[in-house]
Amino acid sequence: MPTGIGIAEGIMKYLCLGYYDEEKFNALPNEELQSLVKKCRAHDAELLATGKVMFVGSLSMPQYWKSIRPGTKPSVTDGPFAEAKELIGAFFVVDAKNMDEAVEIASKHPAANLGAHAGWGIDVRACEFFEEVGPKE
After folding, report:
1. Low-confidence ranges of the chain (pLDDT < 70)
2. Beta strands in the chain (DSSP E)
């Protein structure tokens, strides 16, 4: 059964977006990239150990993306619709009582601790509405 969660209720959901700079990321030597990825595991474990992370995801590279935009019929194009220096490469949702707690939790993610030279970073955004839908029976 769906459950809606809004801003006025106690615990909120926060969408955390992990960014990277595609040009800097692609310029990394393979050995350096592999080393960086290995270092991520400890930060991922710390993030998940908070018990407040609902899920974590990593996105494919932009050449595998599709964009859909409205029109008389939805228009589908390859890749991101808008040019951007920073691309979203990861996402996760946390349960937190306020933005400060959400930032504290998000700060454990690898993109907040590693990869400054690859343009890594995190945005934390409060979800005004979040609907969880269970399996269909």
Report:
1. 1-9, 80-84, 137
2. 3-6, 12-21, 53-58, 66-69, 75-78, 86-96, 121-126, 129-132
DSSP alpha helix (H) spans, 11-109: 22-27, 30-49, 99-106
Burial of 41 (0-12, 13-18, 19+ CB in 10 A): exposed
* Residue 92 · residue 102 · CB < 8 Å: no
pLDDT in the model for residue 83 = 63
CA–CA gap between residue 8 and residue 97 (Å, rounded): 11
What does the block give as tokens for 99?
A: 């933005």
Whole-number pLDDT of residue 82:
58
Query: Both tokens of residue 63?
Result: 């050449």
In this prediction, residue 1 carries a pLDDT of 35
